[in-house]
Write a structure and sequence with these properties.
29% helix; three-stranded antiparallel beta sheet; alpha+beta; 108 residues; 19% strand
């Protein structure tokens, strides 16, 4: 029990960060020593999307993140059903995996 307490991290989450930041696109680049993930918000009628957050990680931690995301998606889909991506086909993705049709639609 004592060893388990030593392995726990006490992480501070301030109020502003706890509110979160909405992004609907991630752009990923890498070098030999790091992965750079830019989280972008694309909005209808906004001509120039902005990067809302940039995260820079080591390759090892990026792979850990990928594995954690895969595990969480698996658990989510067990509870809530398959997450469908509209442009995805069962065999392979056949188009962009992010929203690109953001032109405002006129309605009367």
């Amino acid at each position: 029990m004592e060893e388990q307490k030593q392995n726990q991290l006490e992480i501070d989450l301030n109020h502003e960060i706890a509110q979160g930041t909405y992004a609907n696109l991630a752009i990923i680049a890498h070098s030999s020593s790091e992965f750079i993930i830019d989280f972008v918000r694309l909005m209808p009628g906004v001509p120039k999307p902005e990067v809302k957050s940039r995260i820079i990680m080591t390759p090892e931690n990026t792979k850990r993140l990928m594995l954690a995301l895969q595990d969480n998606i698996r658990k989510y889909e067990q509870d809530n059903g398959l997450i469908r991506i509209p442009q995805e086909t069962p065999a392979a993705p056949s188009g962009p995996l992010f929203p690109i049709d953001l032109e405002p639609k006129g309605q009367a």
